[in-house]
Amino acid sequence: MHYSSVPNTYEGFVKAFHPRSGLDLNFYKQNQMQRRIMSFMSSHGYQGFPEFLKALDEDKTLFDAFFKHLTINVSQFFRDTNQWKTLQEVILPKLTQRKTSLKMWSAGCSGGQEPYSLAILMAEHFPQVRPTILATDIDENVLKQAKDGIYKENDFVSTPPAFLQKHFTPTDKGYQIKDSIKRMVSFQRQNLLTARFETGFDFIACRNVVIYFTEEAKEMLYQKFAESLKPGGILFTGSTEHLFGMNHLGLKPMSSFFYQKQA
Description:
By secondary structure, the chain is α/β, with parallel strands linked by helices. The protein contains 10 helices and 10 strands. It is globular, with a radius of gyration of 20 Å. The relative contact order is 0.13.
């Protein structure tokens, strides 16, 4: 393509980037997203959007680094300890009553820390219940890390040491998750904003994913999550993501950051 035909504007870049990446940046708040893009460009020495777009087309490593920068993959095992405690002590005991299986989904799973945390929690505290855990993300590179299941020391800041010893094997690259946990999770690439969702979930975790979404994109996403949950199912959100004014979706607060779909 003629890169000179791409206007040197944020809007022009958004339009040209969409078909290359599948990522429609119109769903994201412009101020924050434009800041993130400009900071990446200046730190890599690019002045204008046409020049930057050309470089993204020619350099896959740069494209992958930029995509990861945009999709904000920050995660840890058992991140936000108090919320995982609530999940273990309050939410899951209610969800698992008189059940032998649970259908669970980690939406925007990043490098796999969240779905594997779920799997460990289920194995440790609810061994009588068999979970099916779906984990999805838009970034193929973080999904590869998730499938490899190798993590560094700083991924375990919030992890009980006993869990680290029991469910991981130290290797020269870090810590490898054991197959007994790995087998509980299946990973898929998915764009949350455009994909059709499966239904019948007992539990959906979508945490720290919607921070940069526009209000319209959030509303659409939470609507889709509500439709994907079974009556009585739970949506688990991030620590800055309160669902104000979402009563019309049939999601009722159960505890901070946990919302139950009404029967």
